[in-house]
Amino acid sequence: MSPKARSEDQLSKEVARFFMRKLSASGLADQIEARPKQQVLMNLTVGRDPKRGDWRYYFGLQQQDIVFRLKGENGILPLLEGQRQYHSLSAGQKQIQVPLVICELKINRTFVTHHLITYSRIAEQIRQVHPHCAYYFVVGGIGNRRLKPETLLRQAKAFDRVYVDWEEEREIIWQDIANHLAYLRDRAGVIPNIE
Asked: Domains in the chain, start-ordered, CATH in brackets?
């Protein structure tokens, strides 16, 4: 086993590489990709532009650590033109991604329960916009922070799953993701069935 990640960026790269290998081995890589550090549409607000005085759509985007989405044009929506603004749009970004699975990553050493509270709210907002998206919270890397079961019960309700040990649970996490993707393909019709 490789040494434990010391930073969230290291953990993100490790997790992305693992998922890319798993997608390839499973045959899903032709349709699905896992991308690190992606902006995802989180909310929509309507309000007056303070400078122009006209009504606008304000689209709020949030960077997510790992995002699984359909490859190519099937996994994106073009940006809307007209009276709208995008908050936290990446430079040069021309479309909005439609996430199928999100993995939010935190390092054991720096993880605090406030992260559960904050990302629980983000997960709720993202899933209101993207109802087919599963949202997983994953803790890994150096450190030995352990959560009490009652803390998870109280603070992690908005997540589909919470994994407290990436190094030990990576295969379980992958299987849960693969099951969700299979459901989206076979039952929900979100992923085209190419056979």
From this structure: 8-37+64-77+95-186 (3.40.50)
